[in-house]
Amino acid sequence: MTEKVQNLITRSITGVLFVAIMVTGFLHHLAMVFLFALITGMTIWEFTGLVNNRENVTVNRMISTVAGVYLFMAIAGINSGIIQTNAVFVPYLLTLVYLFISSLYTKYKDPVNDWAYTMLSQMYIALPLSMINVLAFRQTPDGTTHFYFLLPLSIFIFLWVNDSGAYCSGSLFGKHKLFPRISPGKTWEGSIGGGILVLLAAFLIWFLESKGDNYSNLNLVEWLGLGLTVVFFGTWGDLVESLFKRTLGIKDSGNLLPGHGGMLDRFDSSLMAIPAAVIYLYTITLI
User: Fold this and answer.
1) Are 92 and 70 in contact (CB under 8 A)?
2) Do 187 and 174 meet the contact criterion of CB atoms below 8 Å apart?
3) What is the pLDDT of residues 129-184, one digit of tens each?
4) 75/182 Cα distance (integer angstroms)
5) Mean pLDDT confidence for 62-66
6) CA-based angle 120:126:130, to the nearest 5?
7) pLDDT tens figures, 11-41
8) Closest listed residue to residue 69, CA positions, set 34, 97, 104
9) DSSP string spanning the chain?
10) Which is it for strands 177-179 and 183-187: parallel, antiparallel or unpaired?
11) Model confidence at 1: pLDDT above 60
């Protein structure tokens, strides 16, 4: 068996297990909260480890990771209705204040760089992943909060379909580079093919949802719009992480997931797609 075939098998097994874990995690609200709190912590830990390898950068990995997970849990508590007061964010704010003030005493060479990367871990990873709670917990007209797995799960379905469609279309028809400076492998043909498949997936989700309880309150056009939103911002998310890795001079963010790299490699698209989906849903509500 050649090394290429072995890599393909490893990648396939990892991919199937990853999808199974993700789908299972969305079947119960506590499972989803625990899963994404874990993902948030592992991704921040990986990110801070990478930036700490840069010259004159020293980020407090433990406190940054704990702060990010706490932010996720606080937003989960507020959106699920378990927590009724915004005072839950006070410990998080105190942690951020501490991370700034502590630099006065550590005497590291470039504290501004440390602050920048510390806050980037929160703004780039913790906050976007926390927005999955906004998608998952929906309020009915009577004010009751329901956990609705389909909306947050659909974001990942769209991302997976887009990746698979883009890979297949790009392999078969790809000629025109999408963003050669950042990601030479991506093509316009692949992106268009992935987008078309996502529209088909959005139609299928709308059709299945229309047969049951429509907690999303989205019609067909709105589902198609959500799918396109995920396609555009998921692609940008992928490119942003590619730019990050090029800046650091690395190929993969880690090796935790055999054949798929690290946590950032696996969730890069969702870091842009999730908040974009939240903005999209709030926008169509206001229209």
Assistant:
1) yes
2) yes
3) 999 999 999 877 677 888 989 999 999 999 999 998 888 888 888 788 888 888 88
4) 33
5) 96
6) 145
7) 778 888 888 999 999 999 999 999 999 999 9
8) 34
9) --HHHHHHHHHHHHHHHHHHHHHHHTTSHHHHHHHHHHHHHHHHHHHHHHHTTSTT----HHHHHHHHHHHHHHHHHHHHTS---GGGGHHHHHHHHHHHHTHHHH--S-HHHHHHHHHHHIIIIIHHHHTHHHHHEEE-TTS-EEE-THHHHHHHHHHHHHHHHHHHHHHHH--SEEETTTEEEEEHHHHHHHHHHHHHHHHHHHHHHHTS--TT---HHHHHHHHHHHHHHHHHHHHHHHHHHHHHT-S-S-SSBTTTBSHHHHHHHHHHHHHHHHHHHHHHHH-
10) antiparallel
11) no
Give the list of residues 6+ apart from residue 199 with CB closer than 8 angstroms, or none. Answer: 224, 227, 228
Question: Tokens at residue 40, please?
Answer: 């948030």
Burial 16-37 (b: 16+ CB within 10 A, else e): eeeeeebeebbeebeebbebbb
Give residue for tokens 């730019």: 243
Place of tokens 């800046």: 247
Rounded CA-CA distance 196/24 in Å is: 27
Tokens (6 digits) for 23: 């789908």
